[in-house]
Amino acid sequence: MSDIASWVSQMLIGCKLTIELFAITLIFSLPLGLILSFIRIARSPKGAISKAIYYCIEWIVSGFILIMRGTPLMLQIFFVYFGLPYLPVIGKYLTFDRFPAGAIAFVLNYGAYYAEIFRGGLLSVDKGQYEASKVLGLTPTQTKFRIVLPQMFRIALPSVANETIILLKDTALITAIGLSDLLKVTTNIVNRTTNISAFAVAAVFYLIFSYILTIIFQKLEKKFDF
Questions:
Q1: What does pLDDT average to in each consecutive run of 10 residues of the chain (226 residues)?
Q2: Any long-range contacts for 41-50 (C-beta under 8 Å, 24+ apart)?
Q3: d(Cα 49, Cα 31) in Å, to the nearest integer?
Q4: Which one of 1.10.10.10, 3.40.50.300, 1.10.3720.10, 1.20.1530.20 gives the CATH number of domain 22-177?
Q5: Which of 53, 133, 149, 163 sits between 20 and 30 A of 9, alpha carbons compared?
Q6: Are 114 and 33 in contact (CB under 8 A)?
Q7: 3-state class of 90 per DSSP?
Q8: SS3 163
Q9: Domain coordinates of the chain in residue numbers?
Q10: What is the CA radius of gyration of the chain?
Q11: Dihedral of CA 90/95/96/102: which sign?
Q12: Is 111 helix (H, G, I), strand (E, B) or coil?
């Protein structure tokens, strides 16, 4: 029992980094995903120049999402931390410490995934809602924030919940660049003590965090169930 108590005290230090990475990723990737989803479903404007700008931005966003979803997150972490400093001209301005590099990679990766989830939710909102909003005299902005977004969040919430729990587990990938998160601390304990029971203790931590997230999202789903 004394060994387990010692392990838990060390793992709690690793949990701090895990939770920080999880929170930062969630705080920044959700709004990023929402912005990207709006760009993906935006209508083409009138005018040749406006259309050219629109298609250029839409092409960049689509390419970004394709790359982020089509390549491994660990590879993206390596690229941000090891690869960006070697880019010509701008590389010297893109040198990050380990934690910021990992956080940037996570935010960009999950922003792309959330963007597709939100896009699906936005496309699922009945077009009649937009027509009804016009009849009621609502502006496009009022329609978006009062009518469309609440319905989109209700539709997308189960997928967001699933992706968020995956994010919690994916934080373990940060060990690839040497950060001492929960998994890294646990691995060090196992290497030092040759006792693999520490992995079971770490699994309990992850299960507790996942359970808490599950409860939170269940409450949110009940709140948005209208």
A1: 81 94 97 93 71 86 95 96 91 92 97 95 80 75 79 90 96 93 93 90 95 94 76
A2: 41/119, 41/122, 41/123
A3: 28
A4: 1.10.3720.10
A5: 163
A6: yes
A7: coil
A8: helix
A9: 22-177
A10: 21
A11: positive
A12: helix
Of the candidates 98, 107, 81, 96, the residue with the CA atom closest to the CA atom of residue 22: 107
3-state secondary structure of 179: coil
Q: What is the distance between the alpha carbons of residues 168 and 176, in angstroms, rounded to a whole number?
A: 16
Which among 181, 194, 48, 23 has a CA at the least distance from the CA of 110? 23
Would you mind telling me the total number of residues written for the chain in this entry? 226
Given a contact cutoff of 8 angstroms between Cβ atoms, the answer to whether 213 and 161 are in contact is yes
| Whole-number Å distance between alpha carbons of 10 and 4 | 10
Residues 100-158 pLDDT 10s: 999 999 999 999 999 999 999 888 877 777 777 777 777 777 777 777 888 888 889 99
**Could you give the CA distance from residue 218 to residue 182 in angstroms, rounded to a whole number?**
26
Amino acid at 84: L
Contacts of 129 (CB under 8 A, 6+ apart): 143, 147, 148, 151
